Amino acid sequence: MAATIAWKPLYFLLPFLLPFLAYSTGRPIIEGAGLEQGCGVGSGGSNHCLYTLRVQTGNRVNAGTDSKISVTLAGPDHVRYHVPNLESWGGLMWDGYNYFERGYADAFAGCGTCITWPPCWIRLTSDGSGSHPGWFVDFVELWAAGPDSQCTKHRFDFHVWLAAGGGHHLTAVRDNCRPHTGNNGDGDGDGNGNGNGVDGDEEK
């Protein structure tokens, strides 16, 4: 279940979120990278929200990846906000940093169109590129805040390989909007609200 707190303007949240993410990832973060405008809050009724994600790569052999990772977020009505490249959209680490490495948590933040509250649906997709295309993702934590919405935190557990072949898939969905009613009707669920049904028990 998502935890909520009273909403504050987005730029007030950054000093609190970024140090926390630096602590939880164990590595420095470039504070406020690309977010100096506070997502346009206060500039004539902006409909932009701040999304902050902490992505945990598993600690299995070959768990890290060089592939591009995209993410799509949605609320209960499944109207979506899509990020085609998570790293270029909102990577908060330093230049030259390697994202999605084995055993590490990475932080991302960016502004985007607000979706229906609270965010409770997520899709991760790997493009399968690079010399290490397979990726084992443990979980994603999402913080979201908007001008007309409460700040909310949601955790999505994956524990799956995103990979081509070997019974794996390049896409995984987690639908926590209706956890007891099966998948979201996209054909990419397993009927248990757990995405594509990859159980994550196999290693590359």
TrEMBL record:
InterPro entries: PLAT/LH2_dom (IPR001024), PLAT/LH2_dom_sf (IPR036392)
Record flagged with keyword Amino-acid biosynthesis: no
Keyword check for Transmembrane helix: no
Compositionally biased region (Gly residues): 184-198
Disordered, as annotated region: 175-204
Cleaved signal peptide residues: 1-26
Keyword terms of this UniProt record: Signal
Domain PLAT: 49-176
Name the record gives this protein: PLAT domain-containing protein 2-like
Organism, as annotated: Ananas comosus
Designated gene of the protein: LOC109711793
